Amino acid sequence: MEHTNKKQIIYLLKHINKNLKMIPTAEDLLNKYRFKAGQHIGNSDYDLMAQYAIEFAKLHVQEALKAAHRNMQLPDEDLEFTLDSYSLENIK
Fold it and tell me: How sure is the predictor about 1, in pLDDT bands with cuts at 50, 70 and 90?
């Protein structure tokens, strides 16, 4: 990987991690909008919706990292490094 590309990745990771605390969790969002439509969401529905929201977010993060990797024209052999740059465990 070229030195410039490493610097770009490090910059992006610092920016992501800096803003990570501002990202609401799936549970936060569901709690915020749980009664917005005037309908109660049952606990089992709530848990299922949270689980789907988390999986949805994980898929999008993976695809965004892949797209960023391709757009930065990084070598294919470094894709795992890029994918590992943001832990999916951060998505809650």
Answer: very low
